[in-house]
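Limitations

Structures in this collection are predictions, not experimental determinations, and the ligand pose is part of the prediction. Treat each record accordingly. The example that follows, with zinc ion as the small molecule, is included so readers can see exactly what is and is not provided: the inputs are given verbatim, and the output is the predicted complex.
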Amino acid sequence: MQLFKNAQVYAPMYLGRKDVLVAGGKIIAIENSIELVANSFTTVIDATDKLLTPGFVDSLVHITGGGGEGGYTTRTPEMHINDAIKGGVTTVVGVLGTDAQTRSLENLLAKAYALEEQGLSVFCYTGSYHLPMVTITQSVKHDIMLIDKFIGVGEVAIADHRSSQITSHEMARLTSEARVAGMLAGKVGIVSIHVGDEPSKLELLEQVISQFDIPITQYYPTHINRSKSLLEAGIDFALKGGFIDFTTSTTAQIIAQGEVPAAQALALALEKNAPISQLTMSSDGNASLPVFDAKGNLIDLQMGLVSSLHQAMVDAVKLFNVPIDLALAAITESPANILRLTQKGRIAVDKDADINLLNPHSLAIEAVYSKGKLVFSEGKTFINTPF
Ligand code: ZN
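Predicted complex:
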């Protein structure tokens, strides 16, 4: 058991100064005062003045690497578990991305199992950017229904020169497949959408929703902060009840080309009254961050980092005046609810004890607990990993 004393608890909504008791990897009590004596079964942690928050939920990470747009040497490496833990991320959703030829879902799943063994919570999407969808079994439906880690399909690319130029009928069929499989398996069955920088923006999704009997909440489009105009379209989508996700990994060059930093995009969306339940940030960790010139030539390539998720939350609070509970919700409760990860994203009794302790002034991460185990403290990780 661990007893956190006197923490300022952000659940992510502010609960006040509380004591939080953890046993067997779960939160079992949150009270004004819990008195227990430290012994060989109980660690008492003085969390006075610390912010106690849920572990962060990163809803899009290329855990087996991504990219390759500049040739084979530009394929990015796998995510190391320490990258996530140091950034306060205790839950990740792993995806393939552009390259489903030299990277596979089998490899994605093996990496997910490895990360889980090492102490992280991991979910995945089947499929990739392209049609026909790659799968492990016979179909997207079988994958979602029969493989526990798969909770949906994606990221399916739209409005992008790297996409399959998917039609509204194809998208409707794929979405129905994921949705029905989700219903039958008690999962979300969501379709993660990679939105590129072509002018059609979210039009394909709007078409599918108006032409077919598919709810808007079946889609989870990401990279919505890629440009000002896409952000505007995204905020409209959120005001109609859709979910939108902002990407926190970026470079100075990408921002110079018109990307809105995720923290600022979150502030703008909230200003336009988009509900926080519809808004999330994810890192796109280990993705390649390619920059193309007007002729489509690759001119720069860097790699996304999972740690950018925490930095964007801090920036939202410090630079763009987003209240801390809302900035936290965008990387905890909102993605957990959207993806129906019922044990994740909240400080509440019976939830998994994924807990971050933050410095109350700088919001720096001082300690991370994943399913009740201390995995990061004072700049050191405590993960059992051979490499
Ligand atoms: Zn993407």
